[in-house]
Recover the amino acids of this structure.
């Protein structure tokens, strides 16, 4: 008998981080592996599915414009019922901390499957930041049967919450599996987005790459961020800011209102993963509030200013590639200028580090489950 795996995800970062696991399980004849997307994201999810050539077996197609947490959570749980009843998986895999993660772990638990949590154990210990992700991840951690912790810190967090050590495996983060697989390809593929970037942007300039979307930064936080970026554009010679803007309307509105039409700020649509990786490799530094980008950039030797007050990923802060700057306009501007005008500091911060993984996380997860099955 083959053991049945159901891998569930719904947003862009979950898809990037689960894609290598989907591939690893599909290659393994001991398992029948199916993919279910909630489509909490649509366009941004489909970009990832296309690049990694994953065709979901089930697509709940849930995304609504301007969706809220109440309706989305309910839709995920009820939407998964028929899928779980039809396929009857032995193992359900969820990733990280989104509403898809939390809803799918509850639905999977109701179905009687064993729940496997990838990227488990990250904590800020502040339930409002990141909101609602800190609580999503904590709830999932207490529903899950098996916990794939990316680092020793996340392992320790789980142990401190009473999870037994036999049920936790330190794997490294699967984001590094995806990054290593992609970074070797992006210079040689014929990618229309990369071509477009090359033709539209002057890469002899000093490139600052920006992303942002966190809910706790919506409103005043984003206004501060945009004003800081405007000031950075005015204060540093020859700087070019490139900002692929997240599709959330709460992000699009302030960003286009405040930064639209400024010459040295390129506001562009979210990039598919290969073009984004290519651009990360080309830039001088990254300013972001993203979890995934915070993990990828140190592996490419790029300093990161994180526009958050807390992080559940302290490892790169500890090795010195990441600094937390919050959403205070003056602090963002001051730290960026200091870094860009101080070559010694820049050199120190841009040393290559891989605190989040070695590219073999998925191999370790498959091996762990094979021993159980
Ligand atoms: C979600 C996750 C967050 C994750 C982020 C990654 C929750 C609560 N939030 O935040 O943890 O870090 O994804 O990007 O789970 N939209 C589109 N097309 C898309 C994607 C989004 O139009 O492909 C717009 C829609 O109007 C949608 C809105 O963005 O309603 C918000 O999407 P949602 O998934 O609820 O929140 P995010 O801010 O993307
Ligand atoms: N990313 C992408 N295109 C973009 C911006 C980001 O493919 O235009 C990738 C990035 O490489 C990382 C992931 O999306 O792997 C991060 O997603 P996001 O910031 O939306 O979510 P978070 O990681 O904060 O949950």
């Amino acid at each position: 008998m083959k053991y049945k795996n159901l891998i569930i995800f719904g947003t862009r970062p979950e898809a990037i981080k689960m894609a290598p696991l989907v591939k690893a399980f599909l290659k393994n004849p001991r398992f029948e592996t199916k993919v279910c997307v909630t489509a909490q994201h649509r366009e941004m999810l489909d970009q990832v599915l296309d690049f990694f050539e994953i065709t979901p077996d089930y697509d709940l197609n849930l995304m609504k414009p301007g969706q809220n947490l109440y309706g989305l959570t309910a839709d995920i749980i009820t939407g998964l019922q028929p899928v779980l009843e039809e396929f009857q998986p032995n193992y359900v895999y969820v990733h990280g901390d989104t509403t898809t993660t939390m809803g799918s772990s509850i639905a999977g638990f109701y179905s009687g499957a064993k729940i496997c949590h990838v990227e488990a154990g990250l904590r800020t210990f502040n339930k409002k930041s990141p909101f609602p992700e800190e609580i999503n991840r904590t709830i999932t951690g207490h529903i899950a049967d098996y916990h794939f912790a990316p680092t020793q810190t996340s392992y320790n967090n789980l142990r401190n919450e009473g999870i037994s050590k036999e049920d936790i495996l330190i794997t490294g983060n699967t984001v590094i599996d995806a990054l290593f697989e992609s970074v070797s390809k992006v210079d040689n593929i014929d990618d229309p987005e990369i071509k477009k970037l090359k033709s539209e942007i002057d890469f002899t300039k000093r490139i600052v790459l920006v992303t942002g979307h966190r809910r706790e930064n919506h409103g005043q936080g984003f206004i501060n961020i945009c004003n800081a970026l405007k000031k950075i554009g005015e204060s540093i010679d020859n700087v070019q800011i490139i900002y692929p803007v997240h599709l959330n309307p709460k992000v699009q509105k302030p960003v286009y209102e405040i930064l639209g039409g400024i010459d040295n700020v390129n506001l562009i649509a979210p990039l598919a993963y290969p073009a984004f990786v290519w651009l990360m490799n080309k830039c001088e530094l990254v300013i972001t509030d993203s979890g995934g980008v915070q993990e990828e950039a140190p592996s490419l030797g790029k300093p990161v200013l994180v526009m958050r007050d807390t992080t559940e990923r302290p490892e790169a802060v500890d090795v010195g590639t990441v600094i937390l700057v919050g959403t205070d306009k003056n602090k963002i501007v001051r730290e960026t200028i200091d870094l860009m005008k101080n070559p010694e500091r820049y050199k120190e911060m841009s040393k290559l580090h891989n605190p989040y993984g070695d590219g073999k996380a998925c191999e370790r997860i498959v091996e762990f489950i094979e021993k159980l099955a």
